[in-house]
Design brief:
Shape: globular
Strand content: 15-25%
Number of strands: 7
CATH superfamily of the largest domain: NAD(P)-binding Rossmann-like Domain
CATH architecture of the largest domain: 3-Layer(aba) Sandwich
Number of domains: 2
Helix content: 40-55%
Radius of gyration: 17 Å
Structural class: alpha/beta
Number of helices: 8
Low-confidence stretches: none
Oligomer: single chain
Largest sheet: 3 strands, parallel
CATH topology of the largest domain: Rossmann fold
Distance between the termini: 31 Å
Length: about 180
């Protein structure tokens, strides 16, 4: 999970662990890495000071990882390919730092990789409803049992949305920033 200390990242770490998966994460400082590990990441790497590919290959005995959830985009694309195990899957959910990357298609073929993207914005109401139903069935019981909990860093009234956005852009938070109405 890239961005392990983000709102999506903190939830993904908890979900993966609740379903029994080994979880690794990247984050932008040592405090955020420690938070990822407290949430269940087996190992978290500060991407500003360490090479996450080398670290996670070491943690997996050079076998690589099965799934990568990435919101960074282009700068991580080929590094993600380097990190994927045979038949690994890269799920691109955002492109915060670039949308265009180049790939060696022979590696894609040789490793039998799957690269996919996903966003909710462009989905139909019916698709979003089906996703919500699946989450209610498979994830919500884990929330009710306390195995997954929202990590809320700060709460702002709606009239302070600009301040909340500045905090989000600073990247200093761990978890979600919530606006109240």
């Amino acid at each position: 999970m890239h961005g392990g200390a983000s709102g999506i990242g903190t939830t993904a770490i908890q979900m993966a662990r609740a379903f029994g998966a080994r979880m690794f994460a990247t984050a932008g400082n040592d405090e955020k890495c420690a938070a990822c590990e407290r949430l269940g990441a087996e190992r978290a790497v500060n991407y500003k000071t360490d090479d996450f590919v080398a670290a996670f290959l070491s943690s997996t005995g050079a076998g690589g990882v099965d799934v990568i959830l990435d919101m960074v985009g282009a700068p991580y694309f080929n590094r993600n390919i380097d990190l994927l195990a045979q038949e690994g899957r890269l799920l691109q959910i955002a492109v915060l730092h670039g949308a265009k990357a180049e790939i060696d298609l022979v590696r894609l073929l040789r490793q039998r990789l799957t690269i996919t993207g996903s966003t909710l914005r462009s989905r139909t109401v019916e698709e979003k409803g089906a996703i919500a139903s699946a989450v209610e069935k498979t994830v919500w019981p884990l929330v009710e049992a306390g195995k997954i909990r929202p990590i809320v860093y700060a709460t702002f009234p709606l009239k302070q949305a600009a301040e909340a956005h500045r905090l989000m852009e600073s990247g200093s938070h761990i978890g979600k920033i919530v606006l109240t109405v």
